[in-house]
Design brief:
The protein is mainly α. 78% of the residues lie in helices and 0% in strands. The chain has 13 helices and no strands. Helix 3 packs antiparallel against helix 10, helix 4 runs antiparallel to helix 5 and helix 4 packs across helix 10.
């Protein structure tokens, strides 16, 4: 498992580097970059989520889905409360507190978390990761957006997006055991295979405007990395052990709660007038450290008998 994860992380680094090179050399324009991002978020990723429905139904899998829903729900409620309190204790300004909360709470579950889980646990693992990501979509596009825009208005309709729609469709297909025609399933798989390379290259596109020395010099970003990469996965592990959650779900929960901050934090920080520079530093720094902490976390899980 460790060798698989290290291979995946190396692939991620190489794809990000390729994206950086392509944008740095002027091979892609800002307009094309935005178009690719929209294509990924609204078409490619939702289609890839539907592929997780291709699993045989069993009572154990249904039970595991419900357990993963509980893990994700408790995580997001706890993470929001902890990161909000931490932002106040650190004495951050109100706008910085808001982006600190979202960066600490909302990770790159779609573009890093799900691919990592798929590499380690296959299509069944993807089903559970998609369930977890569905809660990310709900909480980020309701509470997260309400905090970033500063008006505190919680809008359920903001969560009704292609990603959560595809997750609900995948759950329906799985529960009803509807088998899609082979050509359709093959097409879905082919489109889904585009998620990792395209998403990592898009992250690389965004690195061209970053001064890496500044990323490691902002002390505020270190607190984000501490919560995001160490504290939250440890709390998930302790909670799962307390309630005797099985090894696979415990490991998946730790992975999904211990991956780097999501790039959506940067996009929404810009849109709602928060400190985009701080958001970018926090996300990039957690990605740099995540290359080290994620394999270490899985290794620790193996030592504890979770592998």
């Amino acid at each position: 498992m460790i060798a698989t994860l290290l291979g995946l992380m190396l692939k991620v680094v190489l794809l990000v580097a390729l994206g950086y090179y392509v944008k740095r050399k002027g091979m892609i324009s800002d307009e094309t970059e935005r178009g690719l991002s929209n294509l990924l978020v609204n078409i490619i990723f939702p289609i890839s989520v539907i592929a997780s429905a291709d699993n045989d139904f069993s009572a154990d899998k249904l039970k595991n889905i419900l357990i993963m829903m509980a893990i994700a729900l408790v995580y997001y409620i706890a993470a929001i409360l902890i990161s909000t309190k931490a932002g106040r204790l650190l004495g951050l300004s109100n706008p910085d507190q808001r982006i600190f909360m979202t960066m600490s709470t909302f990770a790159n579950t779609a573009y890093i978390g799900i691919p990592v889980v798929v590499e380690l646990y296959g299509s069944e693992g993807m089903l559970y990761a998609v369930i977890y990501n569905m809660f990310y979509q709900f909480f980020f596009f309701t509470y997260g957006i309400a905090m970033l825009n500063g008006d505190g208005h919680f809008r359920i309709r903001d969560a009704w997006n292609p990603c959560i729609q595809s997750a609900l469709l995948a759950c329906g297909l799985f529960l009803l055991q509807i088998q899609l025609p082979s050509p359709v399933q093959s097409t879905i798989k082919s489109v889904g295979d585009m998620v990792v390379p395209l998403s990592m290259m898009i992250i690389g596109f965004g690195l061209t405007d970053i001064r890496f020395r500044e990323v490691l010099s902002d002390y505020r970003a270190y607190y984000v990395s501490l919560l995001r990469l160490l504290v939250f996965p440890l709390l998930v592990f302790l909670g799962c052990r307390l309630f005797h959650v099985n090894k696979e779900l415990t490991m998946i929960g730790m992975i999904m709660s211990g991956i780097p901050s999501g790039s959506m934090n940067v996009i929404m920080a810009k849109q709602y007038g928060c400190d985009m520079d701080y958001a970018t530093k926090g996300v990039i720094q957690s990605m740099i450290f995540g290359v080290v902490t994620l394999p270490l976390m899985v290794a620790a899980g193996n030592l504890l008998g979770l592998g």
